[in-house]
Amino acid sequence: MDLRIASTTQPLTGTQLARRATAPQGGAGEVGGFSTAFKDALRGVSNAQAQASDLQREVQLENPNVSLEETMVAMQKAQIGFQATLHVRNRMVQAYTDIMNMQV
């Protein structure tokens, strides 16, 4: 799960800000974007949880090819990913609430 955001090293000028603000958002030709990154992150967390669940089931069935250590690491990765997702969701809800409470 990679949640890095690409940034430029140079500050944006007024014209660049205006171009960025008027550029179409979420169009069909858009390569990246927040929604794509967020969907990929959610998919990654879901896959990690599924893998941890599968490994846990295999350990319970006493599969000799699956180690307890591998299972515990997978479970921790899934838990950390879920906690990160939960924090992002909480921040998004808080930002939405703040915007809705702004006076116009």
Layout of secondary structure:
Blueprint: H1 14-22, H2 34-60, H3 68-100
Helix pairs in contact: 2-3
Structure, explained:
This protein is mainly alpha-helical and 104 residues long. The protein has a domain at 32-100. The chain has three helices and no strands. The protein has helices at residues 14-22, 34-60, 68-100. Helix 2 packs antiparallel against helix 3. The chain is elongated. The relative contact order is 0.10.
Keywords:
single chain; 104 residues; mainly alpha; 3 helices; 0% strand; elongated
Task: Please summarize what this structure is.
Helix content is 66%, strand content 0%.
Please tell me how large the radius of gyration is.
20 Å
State the helicity in percent bands. Answer: 55-70%
Described by strand count, sense and barrel closure, the largest sheet is: none
- Give the overall silhouette: elongated
Kindly report how far apart the N and C termini lie: 38 Å
Protein structure class? mainly alpha
Query: Could you list the spans in which at least 5 consecutive residues all have pLDDT below 50?
Result: none
Number of strands: 0
Count the DSSP helices: 3
- Helix-strand pattern, N to C? HHH
**What fraction of the residues are assigned to beta strands by DSSP?**
under 5%
Instruction: Give me the oligomer status.
Output: single chain
How much is the average pLDDT? 81
